[in-house]
Specification:
About 50% of the residues lie in helices and about 15% in strands. It has twelve helices and nine strands. A hairpin with a 2-residue loop joins strand 1 and strand 2. It is globular and about 55 Å long.
Length: about 260
Amino acid sequence: MSENAVLYAVADRIATITLNRPEARNPLSQEVSAEIIRLVRLADKDSSVKCILFRAEGENFSAGGDVKGFSETLALTPEERYDQFERRLLVAARLPNALLDCSKPIVASTRGAVAGAGMALCLAADFVVAADNTYFLAAHVHVGLSVDCGLSGLLIGAMGVKAAKRFTLLGEKVASDEALALGIVTKVVADASLEEETAKLLKRIARGPATAMAGTKSLLNHAAFPGFGTLLNEEATAIAKCVATDDFRKGVEGMLNKKPAAFD
């Protein structure tokens, strides 16, 4: 992981976790995801913290996974790719779980691209304040992959099965206004006022009763995502099957060459 790829600070009862690789559109590598999990757990244990903010430096919240890193696996045999990705996804599955299990309310503040694992982070957060230039994208289908990071369950919880299928099977961008209507975000604001509007929400949450908020968050998450752990395991198996196919190679090469893949 690049040094200072994730920043952490606590002030005014708010723990702020900042994605800090703007030049690469803040990718969520395994190492970055592991650091986020560690920091969420750190904030959860800190009695001085009432809520957690996720934000990002630069013009994009997160472009999700590192497709360039995927290209390195193409030299492996299909069986080796299957084993590697199955292990990788079982580790990555800890990210949405960490956010859902955290007792503190979590706010994500977004602008620009929110893709892949970045979407999972937002959907597992309790509030999303989005700048009007934010767009969401589950691009898995374009590289020959099924969804991961809990998106199969998180998307159903936000928007229902029909909208989730359109979003993931077609791999279409969803702009901020439609994301609000679908339930992906809590509020859409002008880009220039993103920090101000996010701060207002955080201050309101920070004045709330910690035990009551933690209890309500836990109850709602358990009701919304029953069997989430089992679903994460099933996602890992589905991804592993995808990467063992030639469609995965075509998808990764097409993405790197900025050309649509011609799948079998």
